[in-house]
Specification:
The protein is 31% helix and 24% strand. By secondary structure, the chain is α+β, with helices and mostly antiparallel strands. Strands 1-8-9-10 form a 4-stranded mixed β-sheet, covered by helices on one side. Strands 6-3-2-11 form a 4-stranded mixed β-sheet, with helices on one face. Strand 9 (180-193), helix 5 (199-213) and strand 10 form a beta-alpha-beta unit.
Length: 389
């Protein structure tokens, strides 16, 4: 029996978190290659620590994307995020590029040759999820945690909150009654700040962003509102803690409210099913919920390296469905070709749209005019409703 009365918690981290700095550098490199050649292959990993940035991985793409160009891109990312600290400065950090050519053993499994269609870039399982808790069809705790930090970052970039630094984290715990969120039981925000501010100062500066995010009457008790619990957060970013690409996979997805296959997204071009198939699974799950066929929908896809078709397509509406999940799985596969090529073409993923995904979640975002967040569209709703009429 599914639990309906409980407290659930999710966390988010800001664009200046060390791991998110790395995610954005890696995704900016992906964008640079795709802008120059949509057929580029990229798997770029970034490490950042005190005034050092190391970029490693494998690529296949135009020679115009040189090591010098990649260094410029990395410095530009750090500058845009806002790091000009003694221990991590966009102009002073040492940047080391260790990218090499893609392995031919991997390429032969992925490339379309003769009668062989393009295969998956690796084996693995990917999950997509949607639920009716929020207008974005996302779990409420992670969506609220993201929103608090996005508002704080927007104010900082606009010059309205110069006392905040780039590094920050949030955590929201919601009480559920009858399976529906009804209020926050605790809120945690830790943010880098100007050295002259006290903990109480920071608390009151953060408070409006939390109140503006939570629904009326949802604010937690005052004793459960935690801001910078250690008391001080002046040194932040990679100066205080090393960052790596791909270490915030739960923040990037559903905040723990749904399973995760384990593969990170950032730094990978869309031939990698870790990324593209996870986007496809979210796209299908969101359309199922948007069509009113279920209040919750979880989809799992699985792949083998070099094989184009998914090995399995599992659909679970978690006892909220209005239709047979086996039939639903079949209909979804009729509506979308779930091969790596089919996903990429359906969602138009071979475009430079990835740097913007690197913070505040890959899901629950608005589809953009240039194709960004195309997996958040709900353009299958009419066809799904017709199939089950």
């Amino acid at each position: 029996m599914r639990l309906v009365d409980y407290v659930f918690t999710s966390e988010s981290v800001a664009e200046g978190h060390p791991d998110k700095v790395c995610d954005r550098i890696s995704d900016t490199i992906v964008d640079a290659y795709l802008a120059a050649d949509p057929g580029s292959r990229v798997a770029a990993e970034t490490l950042a620590t005190t005034n050092h940035i190391v970029i490693a991985g494998e690529v296949r793409g135009p020679a115009e994307i040189t090591a010098e160009r990649i260094e410029q891109l990395a410095r530009g990312v750090v500058r845009e995020i806002g790091y000009e600290q003694d221990g991590f400065h966009w102009a002073k950090a040492k940047v080391k590029i260790l990218l090499h050519a893609q392995s031919p053993d991997i390429a032969q499994g992925v490339d379309a040759i003769g009668n062989k269609d393009e295969g998956a870039g690796d084996q693995g399982i990917m999950f997509g999820f949607a639920c009716s808790e929020t207008p974005e069809l996302m779990p409420a705790p992670i969506q609220l945690a993201h929103t608090i930090l996005r508002k704080m970052a927007a104010a900082r970039h606009a010059g309205q909150a110069p006392y905040f630094g780039p590094d920050a984290k949030s955590q929201v715990s919601l009480r559920y009654v009858g399976g529906k969120p009804v209020c926050a039981t605790s809120v945690v925000v830790s943010t880098q700040h100007a050295p002259e501010l006290s903990q109480d100062d920071v608390r009151e500066l953060v408070r409006p962003f939390v109140l503006d995010t939570l629904a009326a009457g949802w604010m937690c008790p005052e004793e459960e509102f935690y801001v910078n619990p250690t008391g001080k957060f002046v040194i932040g970013g990679p100066d205080s803690d090393a960052g790596l690409t791909g270490r915030k996979i739960i923040v990037d997805t559903y905040g723990g409210a749904a399973p995760h296959g384990g593969g990170a997204f950032s730094g990978k071009d869309p031939t990698k099913v870790d990324r593209s198939a996870a986007y496809a699974a979210r796209y299908l799950a969101k359309n199922v919920v948007a069509a009113g066929l279920a209040e919750r929908c979880l989809i799992q896809l699985s792949y083998a390296i070099g094989v184009s078709r998914p090995l399995s397509v599992y659909v679970d509406t978690q006892s909220t469905g209005e239709v047979d999940p086996v039939r639903l799985s079949a209909v979804l596969q009729e509506l979308m070709n779930l091969s790596p090529r089919g996903i990429r073409e359906h969602l138009e993923l071979s475009r430079p749209i990835y740097a913007r995904t690197a913070a505040y979640g890959h899901f629950g975002r608005e589809p953009e005019a240039d194709g960004g967040f195309s997996w958040e569209r709900t353009d299958l709703v009419d066809e799904l409703r017709a199939a089950f009429a």
